[in-house]
Amino acid sequence: MPKNDEKIDLYKKISQWCKEEGIFDKKIKEPAHEFIISVRLPTKLGLQIAKPNDKPFIVISCKTQIAPPHWAQLQKGTNLMKFKEQVLEYVFERPLDLAFDQKNPQYVLVDRIFVDGLTQNSFFNSIREISHTFQKILIILNRICGLKPSEPYQAKKPAFYG
pTM of the full predicted structure? Predict the structure, then answer.
């Protein structure tokens, strides 16, 4: 179990990396976690970085609500089954976990990095993997629903994520 200064150092290290990249949004307090950091990527995608109490890893997650027009299209015929099947097939080839919410039209992408392997490179590679997987899921969703995607976001300056 890490000592108190190790907990503080881990938070400082991760929050500093996020601030340097300009993605730090806020710190969230929650009793089940040593810390939670909310970040917002240049593409406006929101992620959370959490360190659960007494666990040797951090969790990086992206919870995404499926938009009402997409959800309405997914309810037709076998669209929802096709969507889940194609998304699962893609995500299983990635080093990520995926969970579909059974009650709400949303899903969560998750990655874990064990503290002993946490580097700035592994941290940002994880964020990039989640970001790219999120984009691929949107492509799959638009293809199945027959909806045209909105204009792709153009960052004002080159970013690590795009």
Answer: 0.86
Residue 154, CA distances (Å) to 43, 62, 117, 135, 162 in order: 8, 21, 32, 14, 9
User: Residue 153 has what pLDDT?
Assistant: 45
**Helix, strand or coil, per DSSP, at residue 143:** helix
Task: With CA atoms as reference, report the closest residue to 11 among 115, 109, 126.
Answer: 115
Listed as ranges, residues in the chain with pLDDT below 50 are 1, 153-155, 158-162
What is the fold of 4-145? Yope Regulator; Chain: A, (3.30.1460)
Provide φ and ψ at 103, rounded to 5°. -105, -25
Q: Which of 101, 112, 11, 15 is nearest to 57 (CA)?
A: 112
